[in-house]
Amino acid sequence: MDHGGMGDMSMNNSNMAKRHYTHMTFFWGKNSEILFSGWPGTRGGMYALALLLVFALSFLVEWLNHCRLIRPGTGHVAAGLARTTLHAARVGLAYLVMLAVMSFNGGVLIAAVVGHAVGFLLFGSSVFRKTPLQPTDNDGLKGDLPPMAC
């Protein structure tokens, strides 16, 4: 008897009913697993907490991308190590946001995009700066890649 590659031939119907189906297309609903097995679950309010966490993570990614935590005059080696640590933290948080979005829940996608957008609005755009960035102001345009030079 072929079980479709299920492995153990002694599997019965009660074990089959406990299998979890992972969504591979976007869906809407609060019953989802985000980042951890069984979380947020079906308890009231936990889905909203999960959305707030995803929002906060994506907001934090933008803050880390645009903040200046290393003071001028910091030693070359210390500044390099600090930048490396900040980069690793930013990339790690960005991967957590990506994994949350891979839950294929529409609310999680919206929370991640809005978190990135609000973070960029506050920290990356010139909306809240007293002096707008000039096109030649490379120091204020922090991103993943340095400006192109020929």
UniProtKB/TrEMBL annotation:
Entry membrane topology: Multi-pass membrane protein
Any GO MF annotation of the entry: copper ion transmembrane transporter activity
GO CC, alphabetical: plasma membrane
Transmembrane segments: 45-64, 93-123
Protein localization: Membrane
Pfam assignment, any one: Ctr
Alphabetical keyword list: Copper, Copper transport, Ion transport, Membrane, Transmembrane, Transmembrane helix, Transport
Transport listed as a keyword: yes
Keyword Hydrolase: no
Coiled-coil annotated residue ranges, if any: none
Family classification: Belongs to the copper transporter (Ctr) (TC 1.A.56) family. SLC31A subfamily.
Protein name per UniProt: Copper transport protein
Lineage: Eukaryota, Viridiplantae, Streptophyta, Embryophyta, Tracheophyta
